[in-house]
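User: I'm new to structure prediction. If I give you an amino acid sequence, what do you actually give back? Let's try with this one:
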Amino acid sequence: MTAPLFDIKSRFSEYVTMAENGEVVEITKHGKISAVIIGINEFNRLQENYRPSFVEKLNEWRRNTGGLSQDEYQDFENALKRNKEVYSTSEAIF
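Assistant: Good question. You get back a string of structure tokens that encode the predicted 3D arrangement of the chain. For your 94 residues, that looks like this:
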């Protein structure tokens, strides 16, 4: 179901009840969908199936560890350069 924001404001409890009964309520603002109301069961289902992206996991790691020190970063960069030199040849591999 889709409803404009001004209608949601005046009948919010009705829309929450619809969401509790399994209906997804799309909220429009200036004619475009800007938000949704979903029930807790649907929310929990979505959370169970959620898989964080690589960037989210990387940011979590940075928050938990503080990231790489300058020396660790330099060692990593040097290792990448060495790998590039070792695995780069003037001949085509394929």
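You can read the tokens as a compact description of the fold. Here is one thing that stands out. The chain has a mean pLDDT of 90.
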